[in-house]
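Colleagues,

For the teaching module next term, I've prepared a clean inverse folding example: a structure given as C-alpha cells, and then the sequence designed for it. I'd like students to try predicting residues themselves before seeing the answer, so please don't circulate the second half yet.
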C-alpha cells in the first residue's frame, strides 16, 4: 500500500506533498548557477573546509578558481529527523537510547577515497554511480532517494491491526518479501537480513535511518517481528522459550488433549507415590526390633532395589573402612583375661586347647577358650576371642564351640523371611521355648529376593527350592544338626529324619580346606552382597571332625578371613551366614536367678542388635540352642 506523506527524507529531499522548510537544507541546487548555503558541517569531521568560489553567495556570477570546481560536501551526520520523528512501526519506547554502530558493518566504515572534508582524494579512481566534480549533476527526484525507497518499501510491508490479528487455533501468516521471490539470476541488490536492499548510495548518512529503528534491522534489535518476543524485550513480560507456542494459540481440541495427558501423568504419579508410601509405612510399622535404617534396606531389597542397597553398602564401606595396624584397647585386653570365677567342671570334662593366633605377637589370653555355658558340670558352650588377621590389629573376632552331645538345635522361621504361615515354629521365643535356652544365632541371606541362592525347608514345607550343591544347615529330629553340601551324601539329603534345611551360597570350608573361590566376586557363587574382599561384620557356621558345632563372628572379616577363622576353630565343613552389623548376632543365656522372667543374655561381641532380639517378633529366620 502507498504510505501517507512522511515529511523529509534522510538525504535532504522534500517528501511528497510537504513544502520546503526554510530552516532546513533543501537539497542540492537545481542548476549550477543557483547558489545554496553549505550544508551543516558535522563536528566529527574536523574543521570546515576552506571556502570556494562557489560559496560566494553575494555574487552569483563570481569567477571560479583555476582548479576544477569541487562538488559540495555531503553531510555525514546522522539523519536530522532521528531525534524528532520515529517510524510508527517501532514497538520500543522512543526515548530508548540508540545502540552504537557496529564497527564491523562495511556500510558504517569511513570511505578511503574521501578526505576529512568529504572531497575526492587524488590517486583514487572515481566510483561508479557517484557524481564527480567538474560534471553537470542530474538533479534526482525524491523518488530516487535510497532512504525514501527504503521507507516506502518498509511501509508497504507493514500490516494493519486486522492483518496482524490471528484467531485462536489458526496458523500465523508469514509475510513474504517480494525481493526473496526474485530468481537468483536476476541482477540487482540482494535483500539484507533486516529486510532492506543494499542501495548504491549506502553510506553513514543514509544508513542512519535504519539504525534508529532497531526493531527492523539485524544489528540493534531483535531479529523477529513476533510481538510476543518484542514485548519480552521491551518490558520483561511475555518472554518465552524459542519454539514454544502460547496457550491461547492452541485450538480447543489441542488444549483438551494437553489437559488429558497432564492429568493422566499426574494421576499415575499420584498412585505410584501413594502405593510406595503405603508399602514403606507398612514396613516401618511392622512388629520387630529392627532399626528404621535396617527396615528401609529390607523393604528395598524386597521390592527389586537390592542393587541400590548393595551400592550404598559398598559406598559406606569405602567411606568407613576398618583401620589397619594399631593395638587393642584396655577394654579388649580385659575381655581376653580369664574370668575371675571359673565354674567347676565335672570329672573328665576339660577346656579346649588354645587356638593358634593369627598375629605374630598375641596379647595375653588371645585364642584361649573359656566355658560360657556349663550344665551339670559339662561345658556345653565354650568361647574364644582373637584377632583374625595381622593387618587389622584393633578388632577382636570371636568363636563359639557347642557340644552336640549335650545340646539340641531348632530352626525358627522369621516373620518376613520366609514367613510363619504353615510352619510349626514361631518367629520369636516365649513361654516354654525359653526353658533350657542356652544360645541363639542369626540366619543367612534373604530368601526373597533369593540372595541366598537356595531354599528353606521346615517340617514338610519348602520355601523356594532346595538347590543341590549349595551349602546347607541340616536339622534332624533328634535335635542334632550338620553342615555340608546338599545332596552330597547320607544325612545331607532329604530323608524322614530331616526336619529343617537352611541353604546359603557355597561352602567356605570343605574337607578341612578353604574354598579357593573365596576371593572371587562372582555373584553366582556369593550372591549380590558387598564384595568378598571387604572387611565387614560377618558370621559363619561349621562342624568339626567329631561332630560338634562352631560359630564364628567378627567386625572386620572378609570371606577369606572368615573361612580361615572357621578352619582354625576346627571346622571341616563351614558356610557363611548373614553379614553386616544389623543382622549378625550370637547370644548365650543363663536362667534368671529368681526363676521367673526371661533368661539373662550375654552378647558374644558388641554388635548392633540387642541381647533380647529373639524375645519379640523377628523378621528373619534364626536358630535356638537348648541344653539336653
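(Answer key — instructors only)
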Amino acid at each position: 500500500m502507498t504510505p501517507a506523506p512522511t515529511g523529509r527524507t534522510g538525504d535532504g529531499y522534500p517528501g511528497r506533498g510537504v513544502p520546503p522548510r526554510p530552516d532546513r537544507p533543501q537539497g542540492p541546487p537545481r542548476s549550477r548557477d543557483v547558489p545554496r548555503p553549505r550544508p551543516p558541517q558535522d563536528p566529527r569531521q574536523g574543521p570546515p573546509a576552506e571556502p570556494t568560489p562557489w560559496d560566494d553567495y553575494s555574487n552569483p556570477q563570481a569567477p571560479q578558481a583555476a582548479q576544477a570546481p569541487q562538488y559540495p560536501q555531503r553531510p555525514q551526520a546522522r539523519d536530522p529527523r532521528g531525534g524528532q520523528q520515529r517510524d510508527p512501526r517501532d514497538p520500543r519506547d522512543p526515548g530508548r537510547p540508540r545502540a552504537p554502530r557496529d564497527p564491523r558493518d562495511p556500510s558504517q566504515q569511513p570511505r578511503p577515497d574521501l578526505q576529512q572534508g568529504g572531497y575526492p582524494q587524488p590517486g583514487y579512481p572515481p566510483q561508479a554511480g557517484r557524481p564527480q566534480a567538474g560534471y553537470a549533476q542530474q538533479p534526482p527526484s525524491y523518488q530516487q532517494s535510497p532512504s525514501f525507497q527504503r521507507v516506502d518499501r518498509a511501509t508497504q510491508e507493514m500490516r494493519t491491526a486486522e492483518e496482524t490479528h490471528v484467531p485462536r487455533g489458526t496458523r500465523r501468516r508469514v509475510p513474504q518479501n517480494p525481493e526473496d521471490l526474485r530468481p537468483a539470476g536476476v541482477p540487482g541488490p540482494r535483500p539484507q537480513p533486516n529486510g532492506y536492499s543494499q542501495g548504491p548510495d549506502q553510506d553513514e548518512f543514509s544508513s542512519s535511518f535504519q539504525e534508529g529503528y532497531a526493531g527492523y534491522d539485524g544489528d540493534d534489535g531483535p531479529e523477529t517481528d513476533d510481538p510476543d518476543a518484542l514485548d519480552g524485550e521491551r518490558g520483561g513480560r511475555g518472554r518465552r522459550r524459542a519454539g514454544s507456542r502460547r496457550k491461547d494459540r492452541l485450538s480447543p481440541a489441542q488444549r483438551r488433549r494437553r489437559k488429558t495427558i497432564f492429568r493422566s501423568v499426574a494421576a499415575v504419579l499420584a498412585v505410584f507415590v501413594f502405593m510406595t508410601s503405603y508399602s514403606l509405612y507398612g514396613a516401618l510399622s511392622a512388629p520387630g526390633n529392627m532399626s528404621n535404617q535396617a527396615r528401609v534396606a529390607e523393604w528395598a531389597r524386597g521390592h527389586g532395589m537390592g542393587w541400590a542397597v548393595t551400592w550404598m553398602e559398598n559406598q559406606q564401606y569405602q567411606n568407613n573402612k576398618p583401620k589397619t595396624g594399631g593395638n587393642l584397647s584396655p577394654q579388649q585386653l580385659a575381655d581376653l583375661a580369664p574370668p575371675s570365677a571359673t565354674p567347676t567342671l565335672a570329672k573328665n570334662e576339660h577346656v579346649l586347647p588354645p587356638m593358634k593366633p593369627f598375629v605374630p605377637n598375641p596379647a595375653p589370653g588371645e585364642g584361649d577358650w573359656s566355658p560360657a555355658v556349663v550344665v551339670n558340670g559339662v561345658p556345653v558352650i565354650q568361647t574364644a576371642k582373637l584377632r583374625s588377621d595381622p593387618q587389622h590389629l584393633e578388632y577382636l573376632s570371636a568363636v563359639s564351640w557347642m557340644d552336640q552331645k549335650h545340646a539340641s538345635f531348632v530352626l525358627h522361621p522369621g516373620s518376613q523371611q520366609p514367613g510363619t504361615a504353615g510352619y510349626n515354629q514361631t518367629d520369636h521365643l516365649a513361654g516354654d521355648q525359653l526353658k533350657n535356652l542356652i544360645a541363639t544365632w542369626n540366619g543367612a541371606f534373604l530368601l526373597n529376593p533369593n540372595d541366598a541362592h537356595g531354599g528353606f525347608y521346615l517340617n514338610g514345607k519348602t520355601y523356594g527350592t532346595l538347590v543341590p550343591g549349595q551349602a546347607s544347615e541340616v536339622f534332624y529330629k533328634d535335635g542334632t544338626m550338620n553342615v555340608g553340601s546338599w545332596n552330597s551324601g547320607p544325612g545331607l539329603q532329604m530323608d524322614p529324619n530331616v526336619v529343617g534345611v537352611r541353604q546359603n551360597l557355597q561352602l567356605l570350608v570343605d574337607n578341612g580346606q578353604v574354598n579357593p573361590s573365596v576371593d572371587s566376586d562372582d555373584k553366582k557363587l556369593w550372591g549380590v552382597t558387598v564384595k568378598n574382599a571387604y572387611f565387614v561384620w560377618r558370621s559363619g557356621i561349621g562342624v568339626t571332625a567329631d561332630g560338634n558345632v562352631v560359630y564364628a563372628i567378627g567386625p572386620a572379616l572378609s570371606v577369606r578371613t572368615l573361612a580361615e577363622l572357621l578352619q582354625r576353630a576346627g571346622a571341616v565343613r563351614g558356610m557363611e551366614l548373614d553379614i553386616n552389623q544389623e543382622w549378625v548376632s550370637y547370644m548365650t543365656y543363663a536362667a534368671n536367678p529368681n526363676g521367673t522372667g526371661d533368661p539373662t543374655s550375654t552378647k558374644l561381641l558388641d554388635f548392633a542388635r540387642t541381647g533380647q532380639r529373639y524375645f519379640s517378633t523377628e523378621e528373619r529366620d534364626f536358630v535356638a540352642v537348648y541344653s539336653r
